[in-house]
Amino acid sequence: MTAVVYGLLWLLFNALGRLFFRYRVIGREHIPRRGGVLVAANHASYLDIPLLGCGIPRRVAFLGRQDLFPGFRWFFQWLGWIPIRPDRLDREGFGKAIRLIKGGKVVVIYPEGSRTPDGRVRPGRPGIGVIVAETACPVIPAYIAGTHEALPIGASWIRCRPVQITYGKPINFTADAQRYAGKEFYRHVSRTVMAKIAELGNVAPPAEPSGRAEQPEPSPAAHSHNAE
After folding, report:
1. What are the structural domain ranges in the chain?
2. Counting Cβ atoms within 10 Å, is residue 62 exposed (0-12), middle (13-18) or buried (19+)?
3. Could you tell me which CATH class the domain 26-200 is placed in?
4. What is the pTM of this model?
């Protein structure tokens, strides 16, 4: 039943996207037809969730803040939303994402952790690296263009602006896992993915916060990091 509802919503949002946003998808062929995969995208608008999903020809689950859908949690969780706490690594939410990927499913994450207020790509959080370390899955980078103009933070109305989703080639971190460990690996994955997302959009890569240069760390513990 959920597959039917998801499929109908997928068709509906595809139609609405083309009608109101001249919705366009580039690089859809980079998404594997089967097998577990993590899709990572920039995040500027609530429109990102349905429109990114419309470009993926498979059913997907989305990691998102636990306060996104007040009053409708059961419905969106039924469809595939994985609520997570934004202030820390949410073991339950990330554990579910890891199990889904290991089970051959597609999971979407927004590594920045929240919507950007100005549309620029921001540094990612290390949570994406935790998932990659636990699953060894490929990461599909995606750049979402136009949703910030259509529905930015604080906007009361949706504006009809062109929206384009660009998917990049899968990034495999298997070899990098031999060079980096623990927190160093998590940050490496986050930086690499966010740089590739910016490249897909032909925009400036995110500036690394001061004091976050890539240096080895002795502790490999995953559970002290932020969620997304």
Report:
1. 26-200
2. buried
3. alpha beta
4. 0.86
